[in-house]
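Quick one, tokens below:
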């Protein structure tokens, strides 16, 4: 099943909710929208660990291609990785940087050794591995488009402002839920880590397609401030003087999206995904699973 098939299934669950009268069509016109991070299950990326992975992958792929390296650094590489971790733990950063510099030198030696000895066919076979290793060797603290996982170059570093976890590694995901019943009616992944407000128009468009009902009032947080979409009245707490009392009461339902996202991550397996092409598909499937459980067969909605 591809993404289009999963979205068609999800649209049918929304239609089933309408048929069972678990939700009224007019409730689909007011939705709460927020973004989160669909994380990748990977170890915290550090320079020393990534460089050691690059060294090991280069040696492994070279052996598979039949290239005899001058030296694979099979003992030196792991030792330097452990040493860098110990220096970092002891806050001996000058020594740690010296070890990491040595690791970069080793990766560079392996790259040059393969480049000298490989035939054109072998170079084509090792091109992707060498490209990723070269990226890891050259990237610095302030570099753009950094590589955070050797096996998953699509992973991005996203800051969500959480005190307990300042940075998360994965892809940005946006969700829309009905303000009154909390039924998920839209989901969209946004590779490239766009600004939160720039995702609003596309999310509303996808929600209208899935529900076949125009969204009149999106409830959002201040990350969407300054964005306007034709045909909608966007509400957030940044413009209290321009809202009526009824709109202020309605805005209190914005938080309905937060527990829905928490349930998706904790109960429906959205937190850890292993393969990139499944991100878009599983992002929709997790939403589909929760929406199905939110609607009981007898036509009532599940509590919580």
């Amino acid at each position: 099943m591809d993404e289009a098939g999963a979205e068609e299934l999800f649209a049918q669950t929304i239609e089933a909710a309408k048929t069972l009268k678990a939700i009224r069509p007019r409730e689909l016109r007011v939705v709460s929208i927020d973004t989160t991070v669909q994380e990748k299950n990977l170890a915290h990326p550090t320079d020393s660990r990534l460089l050691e992975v690059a060294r090991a992958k280069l040696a492994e792929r070279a052996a598979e291609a039949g290239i005899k390296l001058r030296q694979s650094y099979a003992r030196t590489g792991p030792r330097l990785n452990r040493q860098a971790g110990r220096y970092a733990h002891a806050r001996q950063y000058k020594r740690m940087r010296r070890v990491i510099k040595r690791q970069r030198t080793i990766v560079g030696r392996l790259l040059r050794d393969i480049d000298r000895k490989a035939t054109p066919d072998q170079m084509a076979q090792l091109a992707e591995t060498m490209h990723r290793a070269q990226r890891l060797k050259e990237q610095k603290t302030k570099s753009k488009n950094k590589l955070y996982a050797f096996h998953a170059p699509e992973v991005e570093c996203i800051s969500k402002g959480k005190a307990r976890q300042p940075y998360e590694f994965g892809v940005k995901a946006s969700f829309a839920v009905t303000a009154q019943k909390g039924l998920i009616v839209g989901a969209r992944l946004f590779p490239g880590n766009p600004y939160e407000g720039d995702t609003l128009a596309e999310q509303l468009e996808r929600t209208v397609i899935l529900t076949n009902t125009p969204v009149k009032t999106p409830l959002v947080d201040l990350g969407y401030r300054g964005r306007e979409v034709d045909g909608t009245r966007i509400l957030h707490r940044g413009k209290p003087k321009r809202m009526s009392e009824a709109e202020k009461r309605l805005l209190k339902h914005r938080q309905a999206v937060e527990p829905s996202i928490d349930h998706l991550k904790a109960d429906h397996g959205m937190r850890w995904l292993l393969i990139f092409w499944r991100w878009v598909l599983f992002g929709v499937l997790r939403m589909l699973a929760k929406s199905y459980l939110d609607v009981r067969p007898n036509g009532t909605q599940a509590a919580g």
